[in-house]
UniProtKB/TrEMBL annotation:
The name this protein goes by in its record: Secretory lipase
PROSITE patterns: PROKAR_LIPOPROTEIN
Any one Pfam family match given in the protein's UniProt record, by short name: LIP
Signal peptide location: 1-26
GO biological process, one term: lipid catabolic process
Alphabetically ordered keywords of this record: Signal
Entry keyword Hydrolase: no
Length: 404
C-alpha cells in the first residue's frame, strides 16, 4: 500500500526491456469552457523537455550507467504537465471539487490514455497534482508518459484541493467516482486542446490503487458501458474480496507490523464514519490500541498480530454474523464477484503478507464462474507485497504496449 520509494525504481528496468526496440513554467488556472461538465480549471505546472526528464530521472534514481542508458532509450517526447480541478461527489454524495495530475506528451502521434490510481499515501504533499520531484510517482509517471502515453492521476478525495476532507480509504464508491470524474475531466481537456488521443482508455493501479482500479472498471462497465473504449486494465494486489479478507485477519496470525495494522485500522475508521456506525474505537480494538488509534490515527502504535488487537466482541459479531451493520459495510465494498467484459489482468504475489493472495485468486475464480473470458490471473510465486511490484509493472506495460 505504501513503500513508494521502492515502487517506481522498477520502472527503469521495466522500460528497458519493453521499449529499447521500439525549463519549468506555470500559469494561472484556465477556467473551463461552459460546455464542459466536469473540468473546472487547468493549470500548467511545467513544461519538461526530454533533456529535463532525463536529468531529473538521473538525479533521482542515481548515476548508474545502465540506468542512464535505459532512461535515454525510454524518453521520446517533451511533456506538458497540468494540475486539473474537477467536479465530483464525496462519500456522502455531496458535490465537491477534487484535483489530479494530467501529463501529455508533445507529439502528433495518436496516444492512449492511462488512468493511474496511486497506492496508499500518508504524506499529502506527495499527491500526484503537486508533481513533487521527490516523489517516485512523479518521476515514474514522467518517464512513462514521455514514451507517448497520456496519463491521468486522480489525487483522490482528501488530497490536493480536497485535502480538508477525510480520505475515504478503501471505500469502493468514492474511489471509483473520483477516479471516473478525473478521467472525464481529462478527456474534456484533451478534446478542448485537440490533443492526439486515440480514444483508448487503460486503467491500472497497485494496492489501494488496485482496489480503486477494480472499483473504477466495474463502475464503467456496469453503469457507463458506452461512454469509454475500455481497452485494457491491470489490478495489482488489491483487497477485492473484502468479506473473506476481513475474516482472515480477524482470525489468523498476521505479519504483526504496526504499519500494516494501521492500514487495516484505517479501513475500520473509514467505514465507521461513512456508514454512520459512529462507534468508539474501543468497540473494535483492545486497549491501549483503541486510545492510540483514536488519538493518533494513521500514526497509532499497533504492534502485534491484528487478530490479537481486536476485541473479542467485535470478532464474534463478524464471525457469527450478528454485527450486521459492519458486515453490510464490508459487503458494499466487495469488488470481486462480477463479470468484466474487457481485458483484465490480476497481479498478486503468493507470499503477500499485507493483502493476501487469496483476494486475487478468489476474484479470478468468481469471474470465471460468471463466464468471463478476458481475465488472467498472474500469480507471482514467492514474492511479497513490495517484491511483486516489478512483475506487476513489467506485465502491465507489456500488456498496455500490445494494446496501444
Amino acid at each position: 500500500m505504501k513503500k513508494q520509494q521502492l515502487y517506481l525504481k522498477f520502472y527503469l528496468f521495466l522500460f528497458l526491456s519493453i521499449w529499447i526496440a521500439g525549463c519549468s513554467s506555470s500559469s494561472d488556472p484556465t477556467p473551463t469552457p461552459q460546455g464542459n461538465k466536469y473540468l473546472v480549471s487547468s493549470t500548467l505546472i511545467t513544461n519538461l523537455t526530454k533533456t529535463q526528464i532525463i536529468t531529473n530521472a538521473n538525479v533521482f534514481f542515481g548515476s548508474d550507467p545502465t540506468l542512464n542508458l535505459f532512461i535515454q532509450a525510454v524518453v521520446k517526447s517533451d511533456l506538458k504537465v497540468y494540475k486539473v480541478i474537477y467536479k465530483t461527489k464525496n462519500a456522502d454524495n455531496t458535490d465537491i471539487q477534487a484535483s489530479g495530475l494530467l501529463v501529455i506528451p508533445s507529439t502528433t502521434e495518436a496516444m492512449p490514455l492511462i488512468s493511474y490510481q496511486h497506492g496508499t499515501q500518508t504524506d499529502e504533499t506527495f499527491a500526484p497534482s503537486y508533481f513533487n520531484l521527490k516523489s517516485t510517482d512523479t518521476q515514474g509517471v514522467s518517464l512513462i508518459s514521455s514514451n507517448n502515453f497520456i496519463i491521468s492521476c486522480p489525487d483522490y478525495i482528501g488530497y490536493g484541493v480536497s485535502k480538508n476532507l477525510e480520505h475515504p480509504y478503501q471505500h469502493r464508491e468514492s474511489l471509483a467516482q473520483s477516479s471516473l470524474d478525473m478521467t472525464r475531466a481529462s478527456i474534456e481537456f484533451l478534446k478542448q486542446e485537440k490533443t492526439s488521443w486515440n480514444n483508448k482508455l487503460m486503467l491500472t493501479g497497485y494496492s489501494e490503487g488496485g482496489f480503486a482500479t477494480m472499483a473504477l472498471m466495474k463502475k464503467i462497465e456496469q453503469q457507463f458501458p458506452t461512454e469509454f473504449s475500455l481497452t485494457a486494465t491491470t489490478c495489482g494486489a488489491g483487497g477485492y474480496n473484502l468479506s473473506a479478507f476481513v475474516k482472515t485477519i480477524l482470525n489468523e496470525t498476521t505479519q504483526g507490523v504496526s504499519e500494516y495494522n494501521n492500514y487495516y485500522a484505517w479501513v475500520l475508521r473509514t467505514y465507521n464514519k461513512i456508514y454512520g456506525l459512529n462507534r468508539q474505537m474501543n468497540v473494535y480494538l483492545k486497549e491501549p490500541y483503541a486510545t492510540s488509534l483514536q488519538n493518533n490515527g494513521i500514526n497509532a502504535s499497533l504492534p502485534g498480530s491484528f487478530n490479537l488487537l481486536v476485541t473479542d466482541s467485535f470478532k464474534k459479531g463478524i464471525n457469527d454474523g450478528t454485527d450486521t451493520p459492519f458486515i453490510n459495510a464490508i459487503k458494499d465494498n466487495d469488488t470481486f464477484d462480477w463479470k468484466p467484459s474487457s481485458p483484465l489482468q490480476l497481479y498478486h504475489g503468493s507470499a503477500d503478507k499485507l493483502i493476501f493472495y487469496s483476494n486475487s485468486e478468489s476474484t479470478y475464480n468468481a469471474m470465471i464462474a460468471r463466464g468471463a473470458t478476458n481475465v488472467e490471473l498472474k500469480k507471482i510465486e514467492g514474492k511479497d507485497h513490495i517484491g511483486s511490484i516489478q512483475d506487476y509493472l513489467l506485465g502491465t506495460f507489456t500488456f498496455f504496449s500490445s494494446k496501444r
